[in-house]
Amino acid sequence: HGDQTSGNPDDSDPYKWLDKFAKISPQIHLKQSLHNNPNSNYPFLKKYNDKGRLDAKKVISILEEKKIKDVDLILELNFKERNPVDKLVVEHLNESVVYWKKSLPIN
Hints:
This protein is an alpha+beta fold.
C-alpha cells in the first residue's frame, strides 16, 4: 500500500514501487486493495480483482520488461477469524493462487 501519508501519489502506486525496486527485491509481497481504500487487504478473488488496484498481468509484465526471472511472489492474504470467512479460506486461497498462476509465463 505504500506511504499513504505522502503527498506524492507515486509513493502509494504499486507499479511505481515495482518499477523502482523490483531489480533489487528478491521477494515481492502482493496484496489486493481497492482504489477507494488502499489500506484494505483482500484475497485475489474476481469480485475484488475487478475493482482492485493490483493486476497480475501488469505486475508480471513489469517483471518481464525488467528481465527479472528469479523472484518470489508472495501473496499477502488476510482472513478474519470468524464465520463465514473461516469456511471460505481454502476456497479463497485456491482462487487467489489460480489467478496468479494464470498470469505466469510458462517456460
